[in-house]
Amino acid sequence: METILDSLGLTGELSGAGGGSWFDCRGEVLESVSPIDGKVIGKIRCAGRDDYERIASQAVEAFRVWRMVPAPKRGEIVRQIGNALRTRRAELGALVTLEMGKIKAEGEGEVQEMIDISDLAVGQSRMLYGLTMHSERPGHRMYEQWHPLGPIGVITTFNFPVAVWAWNAMLALVAGDPVIWKPSSKTPLSAIAVMKVAWQVLKENDVPEGLLGLVIGKHDEVGEALIRDRRIPLVSATGSVPMGRHVSQVVAERMGRTILELSGNNAVIVAPSADLDLAIRAILFAAVGTAGQRCTTTRRVIAHKALYETLRERLIMAYEQVRIGNPLEDGILMGPLIDRDAVTSMARALKEMESQGGRVLYGGEILTGGLFDSGTYVRPCICEVKPDMPLLQKETFAPILYLMPYETLEEAILYQNSVSQGLSSAIFTNDLREAEMFLSHMGSDCGIANVNMGTSGAEIGGAFGGEKETGGGREAGSDVWKNYMRRQTCTVNWSTELPLSQGIRFEV
Ligand code: UN1
């Protein structure tokens, strides 16, 4: 543990704010606690409103310079950031594991996700394409172009302490925008470590301070200052629905833009022709991976009645094989939940589930003894439920999987779409008609719809996000870069006449 912290320079009291070098913050001391054993692994002096103010003005200044750097040159700097992350992949991954509790492979996978989005952004920096249109007026040229937008605010949560920042930041950088990052107070060290790596690259390239800013602090102090700040034209926020609702209202009030990635409540449909071996492996990873704390975690399995019982038994057998323990150790598949509060919410959800007529088929216990005495380890849980139970509307950020049978595909799709969230979805079927119906406009209503694979583990190349209460935002690949730029439609008259559009004549 000490080696990880030492190698990343995370010892002593750390500053919670800066824009290229660290500020002398005066806020409260925040302790970073490892969910692995409940020990304090770092102390951070939080940022206050003054620090936010300083970062925001730095970002505004940095924007003036950065927007004039040609986009491919901005991409070159992002390439260097990606490479710097490559060389620190193992340490950063281990830090994510230490601070958040996901297993080592997933911690490193998260750093890989940062590297992947950097690579995508480098290429994108030469492809910030606009369209040309044929003007209806003779001797006129019409086209659109994309300009940098301004400083972007990025609010992230504990479950992906670094990758989600990178999805936003790497695209924002090539788009010409500075980024102010408010990470989760549960995972401040991971944010500090990533900033150090990125700042080093910026320093080597003589980029002004403030291009990548960090503010760690209380929501009502720095979070509110960020979302209310009219100098920040776009706020990208990941977290709960109430948080997202608040952010969107505040930002909309000042006519700013948001990208929201809020809660998920993802289902897998297992159809009669499904390859059960595939389905079970996929469900296991998507439901138990990251200890059930991904937005894309599978929370519900809707299985056809013909194979329901077999699937249920085989899933229980698979769950029995899951090795739970210290996520830094090889061979462990599930580490702790983020904190004891998360364990309490899980226990509460299970009670509620039972009171609404469901039952636990496997797991759900809070584990004790040795390392488990930290109170953060649970056995992943499989429950049998009825499709109309109110509890199924809720996303509990824990490894609870709800199973239910169905008879017709229409009914399964209805169950799957009947929740207020719309992030990710999947079907296991070898029947082309079923797969296509699931992907059609009468099928899944989610932002992500997969066939013969699980709901989690999206690649950065696609646009990531979901519908309904998930917030409608999209991050990462496809044409998401457009969110970080402003579109300008330009018409140039190269003729000696002044024809008006729509054939209007206006002459004296
Ligand atoms: C999240 O949980 O907020 O699809 C993001 C996945 C990851 C990202 C999840 N690539 O599981």
In short:
The chain has 508 residues and is α/β, with parallel strands linked by helices.
Keywords:
six-stranded mixed β-sheet; 508 residues; globular; alpha/beta; 23 strands; Aldehyde Dehydrogenase, Chain A, domain 2; Aldehyde Dehydrogenase, Chain A, domain 1; 14 helices
Commentary on this structure:
This protein is α/β, with parallel strands linked by helices and 508 residues long. The chain folds into 2 domains: 2-262 and 471-488, 3-Layer(aba) Sandwich (Aldehyde Dehydrogenase, Chain A, domain 1); 266-459, Aldehyde Dehydrogenase, Chain A, domain 2 (3-Layer(aba) Sandwich). Helix content is 37%, strand content 20%. It contains 14 helices and 23 strands. The strands form 6 sheets. A 7-stranded mixed sheet has the order 14-15-16-13-12-18-19, with helices on both faces. Strands 2-9-8-7-10-11 form a 6-stranded mixed sheet, with helices on both faces. It has a 3-stranded mixed sheet with strand order 1-4-3, with no helix packed on it. β10 (234-238), α9 (241-253) and β11 (257-261) form a beta-alpha-beta unit. α3 packs antiparallel against α6 (163-175) and α5 (104-124) packs parallel to α6 (163-175). The longest helix has 21 residues, at 104-124. 2-aminohexanedioic acid is lined by residues 159-160, 164, 238, 294-296, 456-458.
